[in-house]
């Protein structure tokens, strides 16, 4: 079993969740409004606010901006919380993350569940930062997109640097690598509505020069993928109803040329449908 810091050892995580709740109250915005003004979904904001998931730094800065609060104190608190949940404050080395694919594994061999929902990708954060603060109030689900066009919306004035660019981003999570920062992620055209009612869109990060496919309103057994000229492919399968509750995105593809991208959706029972971006 992975060694994660117990709740009692993560005071910064609890303080960060409480501070984010206070900022939200000061903005007067609902979870839906927060999602509409940032690159993070309603269900993600619910998890950040109730402490079930560590908020990305970009989300903290965006909320500070909307509340008219200088981000310095909250960013410092976020850094402490990030150290706590990651275990980097310990003297012993942190264990390797679970479910890492073997070096050189093909995209089809990568365990799909690693990319299915943020809830699963942030299991360590949830274990370290879970705090019992108004859980019944904030626990909600959303079927809207995680990454939204952010032109004209509030964004932090100084977003942290992205952790990858172009080919370095291939196979990486766009949010944890800082590629989905507000104002830095754009859809390549309107969402495509599939025959089953699912939505599919290609998202491009100008910050990281990388792209990923995003889908929502999916069902168990559905699958979708993003491919680029030259053979790079990243894909996701909806494993269960929990996966279907949240929007899903593929790992990134970061080719030198982002033209010619192709996203395809395959329902559990039906024919494949594709879009180009």
Automatic annotation (TrEMBL):
GO molecular function terms attached to this record: DNA binding
TM ranges: 122-140
One Pfam family matching this protein: DUF2690
Span list, region Disordered: 88-114
Gene3D superfamilies per record: lambda repressor-like DNA-binding domains
UniProt keyword terms in alphabetical order: Membrane, Transmembrane, Transmembrane helix
CDD domains hit by this protein: HTH_XRE
Coiled-coil regions, chain positions: none
Superkingdom field: Bacteria
Protein name, UniProt field: Helix-turn-helix domain-containing protein
Species, as recorded: Actinacidiphila paucisporea
Lineage: Bacteria, Bacillati, Actinomycetota, Actinomycetes, Kitasatosporales
